[in-house]
Q: What sequence folds into this?
């Protein structure tokens, strides 16, 4: 019968427990929580020679009266600008993907998963992460902001998304975002 002391697996587990038990930590106070509001436009361009979003998977189920299919997956690297015109000042990009995740043609919704990467001013290099349902034909959609980096470390908040323009033939869209975040 193997003795307790000579069982190598048990010895390994015991030494692991000792390491975990001795792991050191220290508590600290975060700075004051701040609230920031951001307003900008996002250009999701599917057509032409320089699309900003590309379909990487085409789903099999055509959504009635619509050029998209349940299961379509698009990868996006959309410019974010100060104003609605595509020539307006670039302030960042929305990099991520969206999936047509609703089978109901009367209530088309995306799963939109994207990082907003800011490229100018005091937010340059900081990011906000959005994980949301985007019911694209609703007049206003509320998107949860689930985190951030840099200036927006520990961010939480929401973004209100409105369609500024949408070309139903090409699928090109300009979207208006109002983002409200708490961060430190
Ligand atoms: C889906 O159906 C619409 C009309 O309902 C049609 O215009 C479109 O071409 C179809 N798309 C595909 C990929 O079959
Ligand atoms: C966008 O800006 C360009 C040049 O700055 C201008 O020619 C064009 O009319 C503007 N478009 C709109 C829709 O305002
Ligand atoms: C943003 O930061 C990058 C990297 O530090 C830098 O190269 C770039 O010039 C900055 N852009 C602006 C507009 O400040
Ligand atoms: C919508 O897209 C189609 C196809 O790319 C294009 O021919 C048409 O001019 C666009 N409409 C507007 C208002 O931009």
A:
């Amino acid at each position: 019968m193997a003795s307790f002391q000579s069982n190598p697996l048990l010895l390994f587990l015991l030494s692991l427990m000792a390491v975990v038990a001795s792991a050191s930590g220290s508590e600290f106070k975060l700075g004051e929580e701040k609230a920031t509001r951001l307003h900008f436009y996002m250009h999701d361009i599917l057509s032409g020679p320089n699309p900003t979003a590309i379909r990487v998977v085409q789903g099999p189920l055509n959504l009635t009266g619509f050029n998209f299919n349940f299961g379509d997956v698009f990868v996006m690297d959309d410019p974010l600008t100060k104003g609605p015109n595509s020539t307006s000042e670039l302030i960042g990009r929305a990099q991520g993907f969206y999936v047509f995740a609703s089978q109901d043609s009367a209530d088309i919704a995306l799963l939109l998963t994207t990082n907003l990467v800011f490229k100018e001013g005091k937010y340059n290099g900081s990011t906000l992460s959005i994980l949301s349902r985007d019911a694209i034909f609703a007049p206003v959609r509320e998107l949860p902001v689930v985190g951030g980096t840099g200036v927006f470390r520990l961010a939480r908040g929401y973004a209100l998304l409105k369609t500024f323009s949408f070309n139903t033939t090409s699928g090109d869209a300009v979207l208006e975002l109002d983002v409200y975040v708490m961060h430190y």
Residues 119-120, 124-125 surround 2-acetamido-2-deoxy-beta-D-glucopyranose (ligand 3) (CB under 6 Å).
